[in-house]
Structures are given as C-alpha cells and as structure tokens.
Design brief:
CATH class of chain B: Alpha Beta
Structural class of chain B: alpha+beta
Shape of chain B: globular
CATH superfamily of chain B: Molybdopterin biosynthesis MoaE subunit
Shape of chain A: globular
Radius of gyration of chain A: 12 Å
Strand order of the largest sheet of chain A: 2-1-5-3-4
Oligomer: heterotetramer
Distance between the termini of chain B: 27 Å
Strand content of chain B: 35-45%
Strand content of chain A: 15-25%
Largest sheet of chain A: 5 strands, mixed
Order of helices and strands of chain A: EHEHHEEE
Structural class of chain A: alpha+beta
Largest sheet of chain B: 4 strands, mixed
Helix content of chain B: 25-40%
Largest interface: B-C, 31 and 31 residues
CATH architecture of chain B: Alpha-Beta Complex
Strand order of the largest sheet of chain B: 1-4-6-2
Number of helices of chain B: 4
Distance between the termini of chain A: 37 Å
Number of domains of chain B: 1
Radius of gyration of chain B: 16 Å
Order of helices and strands of chain B: EHEEHEEEHEEH
Chain lengths: 81, 148, 148, 81
C-alpha cells in the first residue's frame, strides 16, 4: 500500500487529507494516478504541484520509484499573504 | 540562541520576546515582527494547515540561513497552525545582533521567506464559507529582493 | 496612535510594546526595534545630551513623516537622554499597519533618521575617560536610502 | 544680554553648557564671536556647526539679527551610531 497525502485545496478536491492506495498499478507515479478519479489525477499533476516522498521534497519532473509503505505528499502552491 | 517552534495554540508575543531578549544581554539591537489575523473584511476564522515532515525542518533551515547571512546572536521564529481567530498572532520573528542593520534585514528576510517559501496553506471563513487564500504576486516580488 | 516621548530614566521595552499593541486591535502587522547600550568594548557608561527646543519636536515631526509616507495605524518612538549603562535601552521604535511591508519600512526609516538627523550628542566613558562619539559615514549612507 | 548654548563637544571646548554675553559687540553674530576666546570662536564657526535662534534652526550661512534676551544655540554634528 501507498499513503497519499493531499495538502491545501487538493484535500478539498480529494475529499480526504490522506488516502491508502494499492501499488498494483506498478511502482510508478503514473500507475498510481491512473487509479484515481480523473479530475483529481489531473490536479495532482498540475505544473505548480510539488511532490514529497517520505517527507523529502522531490525535484520537479522526478519520476519516483514507489515502494510499499511509502508516503507520497502532493503540495500545491502555498498561500502567502 | 535559535528558538524555532510550530505552535498549535494561541501565544503571547510579549511573553516570548522578553526571555528571548534577556537571553542575549550582549545584544545592541533587537528587531521583531508580529503578524496577526486581521480583523475586518468579514473574516471569521483562519485555518492554517501544514505538512509536518517539511514545515518545521523548513523553518529551522530558514533560521539557520538567516544566521549564516547576518552576524546574529539569535533568531526567534514562531508560527501558528490550526484554527485562528481575528486578532490572534500567526507569526513572530525576532533577531538580535550588535548593530541594527543586521537585525532589521534578517527579520525582513525571514518574514519574506515564510510568506512564500514555506509549507503553510491557509483558508479563511467568510459568511460561514471556507475559501482558500491564493498565492500573491507581491510575495514573490518580496522574495526576489534577497536573490543577489 | 502617535506615542513619542523623550525619557530621562530607564524604560522596559516590553512594558511599552504591550499597551501599544493592545491599542491597535485592528492591526495585522507590528514591527519593532530596540537599540541598547552595547556591553563590551570597555564602555562603562554612555551620556546622551540634547537640545530640548529641537529634540522632541524633531522626533514628533519624524513620527508624523512616517505616518504620512506609509499607511500606519500607529507609531511608537521613545528615546533616552542622560546617563545610560551597558544593556540599557536607548531607543525603541514600533509601527503598526495592516501589512508587513509598511510596518517594516516605517520602523527602519525612523531608526535611520534618528541616528543621523536628530538632535542627540553622545559620549562614552572608557577607562574613566569621556570621549565624544563621532558621526559615522554608514549612518549617512543609511539615510540616503530614503531620498527618492 | 544674549544666552549662548553649546552642545556636544562645543560644551567641552567652552567649558560650560551655557554662557550669558553682553550684546555690546553689536547685534550681529560676528560681534558676539569677537568677544569670545579665539579657539572657541573658530570652532563655533565650523562648517558643520548649525545655529538655532530661540529654538528655531537657522538656514546655513544665515546672519541672524540678535536681540536682548535671545538664545543662540551652537549645534555640532550629531553622533549617529
């Protein structure tokens, strides 16, 4: 299983702050996204959304190799002001 | 002294600055800043969410960076999370140094980076409805001032 | 609220900022600065003399100028005169506004002008001998930042 | 009589913070200075010394008309720092 964490407005869109998903779509990000509702998957791939794997920020465009028990966080732009 | 904390309950800035100032009797200059939830505009509450694995480590890195850039004796950096009401402090930053320029600039630097380069998401409640606060272009302009 | 005072006895910055902050519940941002007599360097005491007909009126004009330049809700400006000892506060400036940039800039502006464009003469006692503190080029450079 | 006020290091040089002088050298600044010790008179005319008459700052190079009871303050550069 993989734990997905949705921050900011992505939490509203997902309807939950965290979600456990099986890794049966392969150990790739695109495999995981394919198993999610289309609008959520699209938002998670937005150009300004950053990713953190197990609490470590990933470089833009990284294609993480996911392992059972990993936590993958989706971080939209912060609010400022 | 580096005092960096993420707070889940209301805090009193004056109760924080007093021990911080006393901890640095050798200082010549203390600059500080407090940002509060602005009353007015119909905002009933503000909610700050964050991502624990990144937020506090990011604040600590920011305080370290300020101490690396300026000759500071200490940095205080406090930030609220959770549900806040109008008038409550959200953030407090203070810097102590021998001379005023370093204390001012470091405080300004930390605030600019907290606003645009840290891991907080804010939404506000107006008329019973929650709405997310969007990024502001002004904050990114503020951040660019420090990229020499 | 404009709170401008010339003080002849030691003061506690924390006791000053508290009522000042409370007087502006509508504020979103409070920036403040405290300058103290730096311990070290063998300085035993500092004496600040001034010229009463010009000094306080000059401080009031400076506070007014800050309120004219930035959208501030209040300015606090306190300055000591007389004999001061290491660790004692000399000056305190605070500004409250809706947003942080105005509060920061106004505080910085007032400090720069107090240092170079106000009516205080300072001498320090080292090894029992008094010596006058000369003007510093750095202060005039700081002042030029505000001449747009 | 005229009250002269010496600030900062000018006080050290004069040996006093204030001095009452007669106006019998005329109602001009140079008349007053002529009655003072030469080194003090020279310091008071230094290019960075500002003057205030009755608490009002005078423009550089002003030649004030002095009257009985006036206060004339000599203000050297302030300390900064």
């Amino acid at each position: 299983m993989l734990k997905l964490v949705f921050l900011g407005r992505l939490e509203d869109l997902a309807g939950v702050g965290e979600m456990l998903v099986p890794l049966d779509g392969g150990q790739t990000l695109s495999g995981v996204l394919a198993g999610l509702p289309g609008d959520l998957a699209a938002a998670l791939q937005g150009p300004k959304v950053k990713l953190a794997q197990n609490g470590a920020l990933l470089p833009p465009g990284a294609e993480p190799v996911l392992a059972d028990g990993d936590e993958l966080a989706f971080l939209p732009p912060v609010s400022g002001g | 002294m580096r005092n960096v904390r993420l707070l889940t309950a209301p805090f009193d800035p004056n109760a924080e600055i007093d021990p911080f100032a006393r901890a640095h009797p050798e200082a010549g200059a203390i600059a500080s800043f407090v940002g509060k939830v602005r009353p007015g505009g119909g905002v009933e509450a503000l909610e700050l969410s964050h991502y624990p694995p990144l937020t506090l480590p990011g604040m600590e890195t920011l305080a370290d960076e300020a101490m690396r850039r300026w000759p500071l004796m200490g940095v205080l950096l406090l930030h609220r999370t959770g549900l806040l009401y109008p008038g409550e402090p959200i953030v407090m930053v203070a810097a102590v140094s021998s001379h005023r320029r370093a204390a001012f600039e470091a405080t300004d630097f930390v605030m600019d980076h907290l606003k645009s380069d840290s891991w907080f998401w804010k939404r506000e409640q107006v008329g019973g409805q929650w709405r997310w606060i969007e990024p502001r272009g002004e904050d990114h302009a503020d951040l660019k001032r420090w990229q020499a």
